[in-house]
Amino acid sequence: MSPTTADTYPERIENVDQLEELLSRPTDYLIDVLHRVSGDIIVLGVAGKMGITLARMAKRASDAAGTKRRIIGVARFSKPDQQPALEMHGVETVRADLLDQKQLDKLPDAPNVIYMPAMKFGSTGQEALTWAMNTYLAGMCAQRYAKSKIVAFSTGNVYGLNPIVLGGALEASELDPRGDYAQSCLGRERMFEHFSRVNLTPTALIRLNYATEMRYGVLVDVAQKVYGGEEIDPSMGAFNAIWQGDANAMSLACLAHVASPPFVINVAGPELLSLRRAAETFGAIMNKPPKFRGVEAPDALISNGQLGHRLFGYPRVPIQQLMSWIAQWVMSGGASLGKPTHFEARDGKY
Questions:
Q1: Tell me: the pLDDT tens digits for 127-167?
Q2: Which CATH superfamily is domain 16-211+244-269+303-316 in?
Q3: Which helix (H) or strand (E) holds 194?
Q4: Which of 67, 151, 152, 223 is the most exposed place for a label (fewest CB within 10 A)?
């Protein structure tokens, strides 16, 4: 099969239902992977920003592949509409606090695990909980699912700031995490690496920079600031962005690339985007010239996603289309998750 589908995409996204259908639409490559990969898939931490559409995509790709399997989503489900939304699309749900060892032990076995729990925003002032969520929990789950394949989400923040002129960190680049969030995420990677080596657990680590859709992401933050006439701090002068639907597909497809020691991959868009130019583009679409406060630094939190592009193909949604969608969504008052990315933070404090 080809790396990506030939599906056409609309000129604009009208509502959340349409958005989530697009975010959960699988690639041909993923359908082929889930035809070859056997067994149920359990998604730990399914109720986060990506998890619900990722689980739906896993179900849709499995159905398209003709592969009978359970897709199981596990979370605390703090919002009452999350479980029914998943179950309506054929995803089984289990309500559990993963930090409770007894509840973790009672979870269903599954040969394929997608690990998504994390704590970023609010980590400053709650450092102990941040380390428990991002590092200790990873060790717990690595032992609970030692006999499974594990695809675990991490972040490009583990690389630290890199010179923009070099094009972003590669998977083999030196790691230099700043602040408790990034350091605890490196701790998460080390836990999965340790138990992968000890238990020979096939594992993949996804260093993500940055999944974006209409309700969340760096591009959404920039568009909202432009539309609202707010000043933009351009010191983090460059960033990565990738359509969340493509990030979902690439991450799930890593079930075919797990290894011991872990396979590591950057999931990122093919371009390094200029923050200033992105704001100016939104300003042109919205007829609202952006306002800036400060100047760009020579380094930024940026990753090079070329390995993922070689394996899975280029993202289906080009950045120009994504920015057009976001601009229209923001101008029409579309829904927001209300979770700013704090893209301007250079000290690692979130």
A1: 999 999 999 999 999 999 999 999 999 999 999 999 999 99
A2: NAD(P)-binding Rossmann-like Domain (3.40.50.720)
A3: helix 179-199
A4: 67
